[in-house]
Structure to design on (245 residues):
């Protein structure tokens, strides 16, 4: 599946008003005018990720006449977080969720989604900005699993954490800063795991509101794992505890 892009201010406005799922919008720096202002208003109102870039950046897209605005359309539909939590709690007494803090590599994201589907994760939560786009590479790497796990986008991960906690779902961050290994944690009940990027890990503000933190012990020369590998290791520890302990 190839990524879809919409070109032109008016076309993007129509796309937003039709409630299409938009990943991101790139706008030409210094552009003005009533129609452009209307687009800016809609982007802010709908909390759609957007950035202002020079003409050279827009010219890299395969568009002869982009009119100073290009939007990437998501190939999947994101669901509201309240709807995802409610459905998961109805389906299971011990739902499992995954929050990804600024995972920016599209293939890593696809690999994580594939493992999440295999391990029964009932929802994946991503931040609105600073997260990898859902592209054809993401879908391909997920081996189609992206269509089996509900995906949510939120303005701030902390807001999602508070909503999960309000529903008695324990939140556990996987970080090398933790004192305890994941194997010492009880992972039997309703659970939301938080994974951070390999470069920055989980944001300090996000760590501060979590119920618990845990780490994967590293005993060799390498001090960190690829985030998709780490995620898979933790998710299968959840399965081990729930099904074999």
């Amino acid at each position: 599946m190839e990524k879809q892009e919409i070109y032109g201010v008016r076309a993007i406005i129509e796309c937003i008003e039709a409630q299409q799922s938009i990943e991101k919008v790139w706008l030409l720096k210094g552009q003005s005018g009533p129609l452009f202002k209307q687009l800016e208003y809609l982007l802010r109102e709908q909390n759609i990720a957007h950035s202002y870039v020079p003409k050279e950046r827009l010219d890299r897209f395969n568009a002869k006449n982009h009119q100073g605005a290009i939007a990437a359309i998501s190939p999947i539909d994101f669901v509201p977080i309240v709807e995802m939590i409610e459905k998961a709690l109805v389906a299971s007494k011990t739902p499992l969720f995954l929050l990804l803090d600024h995972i920016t590599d599209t293939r890593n994201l696809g690999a994580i989604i594939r493992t999440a589907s295999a391990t029964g994760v009932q929802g994946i939560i991503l931040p609105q900005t600073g997260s990898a786009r859902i592209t054809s590479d993401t879908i391909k790497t997920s081996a189609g699993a992206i269509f089996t796990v509900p995906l949510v986008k939120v303005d701030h991960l902390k807001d999602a954490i508070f909503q999960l906690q309000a529903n008695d779902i324990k939140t556990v961050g996987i970080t090398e800063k933790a004192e305890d290994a994941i194997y010492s944690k009880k992972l039997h009940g309703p659970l939301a795991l938080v994974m951070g990027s390999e470069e920055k890990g989980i944001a300090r503000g996000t760590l501060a509101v979590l119920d618990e933190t845990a780490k994967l012990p590293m005993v060799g020369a390498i001090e960190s794992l690829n985030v998709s590998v780490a995620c898979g290791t933790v998710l299968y520890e959840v399965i081990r505890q729930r099904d074999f302990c």
Summary: Strands lie at 4-7, 22-28, 50-53, 69-73, 96-101, 123-127, 151-154, 170-174, 191-196, 212-214. The mean pLDDT is 90.
